[in-house]
Amino acid sequence: MYRRFLRPLLFRFDAERAHTWSLRAARLLQYTDSSVLNRLYGYHNARLEQTLWGHTWPNPLGLAAGADKNGVALRYWHGIGLGHVEVGSVSAQPCSGNERPRAFRLPDDEALINRMGLNNEGAKVVAQRLRKYAGDTYEGDSGTPPRPVGVNLAKTHDPSIMGAEGRADFCASFRELAPHATYVALNVSCPNTRSGKTFESPETLDALLTDIFALRREMALDVPILVKLSPILTERVIFDSALEARIEVAESHGVHGYIAANTAPDRHGLTTDTSRLQAIGRGGLSGPPLHARSIRLIRYLHRATEGQVPIIGVGGVDSAETAFAKIQAGASLVQLYTALVYHGPGLIKSIKQGLVGLLDTHGFDTIQEAVGTDPVLERFVL
Ligand SMILES: Cc1cc2nc3c(=O)[nH]c(=O)nc-3n(C[C@H](O)[C@H](O)[C@H](O)COP(=O)(O)O)c2cc1C
């Protein structure tokens, strides 16, 4: 239905407009009788359930940051069977983002390029929405109360907010949003800022984590803090000194998890015409071309942390096989965004069903058993 009717209609419009309309529809649909969405998309299997950071995750599949930045359609995402939603990136101040056009489809690669520039309604508005959602009772496909909602934080997109002010900006968002989040993700790797700077250098990351962990203690919260990193761009990796330094800093603060990975700035492995790519210009690449790059980072993190710190794998998940590859590489949870644009909401159920089939094929009882079982992890080169 999506591929035959809705996608051709949506693809007549530019990527951002199509997304805005889809989100409006999702916002309305979430208030229909939950049994309608459940009949279409519901699929629950206890073998996909796991407990992480003290919470139950009904299945490993979640919505990646960027798809519902302001958390307007949380009931819809959960209604179509996603196990969790990551809202954001949200910044302390509302922000309109970069000039349009800023999102582009590459249909030949089933990929996207975006330079949205952290457009969002700001921490206060999103916090109000999350507060309301937490008060809702919701009968999803497992009949549980509201599902896990992660909140992804970024610095307000304004190059004049730098250094200590930048950290204070992150902390202001944390103060508003962390009490309503199942986890907080720090987006330290956004490739689309006007200043071109990220928070990934060891010194900047160290200072940011110092402030965030101090605030978490002051607020007496036990919310897990996750760090979202850039993908590994090289074909093969033995040792990556910049990444090692980041992991060392994150581990020294006792970070509770990693998200691997953000979009990639490069254009490797694409079949799309170079003239089209040049016309699009800069922006982060997502979708299938990101899969191998994010897998390398997941493996690296899993090995570096000896499998002790949960990882959320994201980038090019578009099938049960790609999701399972990330899980075997070391991810406990996976997320997707671009594949929903190309395949529609029915994909969620088919990935979950496919994952159960893959558990059988590989002889695992539960999804948790499959985490980090990729034989590549035993090798010297990832
Ligand atoms: C249009 C668009 C906007 C995005 N915005 C954000 C964002 O605000 N914060 C963030 O951490 N990641 C953002 N992402 C990155 C996604 O969360 C994800 O890391 C990336 O798209 C790879 O997953 P995918 O291949 O399933 O799309 C965005 C991605 C896209 C396509």
From TrEMBL:
Localization annotation: Membrane
Domain Dihydroorotate dehydrogenase catalytic: 48-356
Name of the featured protein: Dihydroorotate dehydrogenase (quinone)
Pathway(s) of this molecule: Pyrimidine metabolism; UMP biosynthesis via de novo pathway; orotate from (S)-dihydroorotate (quinone route): step 1/1
GO cellular component: cytoplasm; membrane
GO biological process terms, semicolon-separated: 'de novo' pyrimidine nucleobase biosynthetic process; 'de novo' UMP biosynthetic process
Transmembrane intervals: none
Record keyword Oxidoreductase present: yes
Function field: Catalyzes the conversion of dihydroorotate to orotate with quinone as electron acceptor.
Protein family (similarity comment): Belongs to the dihydroorotate dehydrogenase family. Type 2 subfamily.
Cofactor: FMN
Pfam families: DHO_dh (PF01180)
SUPFAM superfamilies: FMN-linked oxidoreductases
EC number: 1.3.5.2
Taxonomy, superkingdom: Bacteria
Top-level class of the enzyme under EC nomenclature: oxidoreductase
Catalytic reaction(s) noted: (S)-dihydroorotate + a quinone = orotate + a quinol
InterPro entries: Aldolase_TIM (IPR013785), DHO_dehydrogenase (IPR050074), Dihydroorotate_DH_2 (IPR005719), Dihydroorotate_DH_cat (IPR005720), Dihydroorotate_DH_CS (IPR001295)
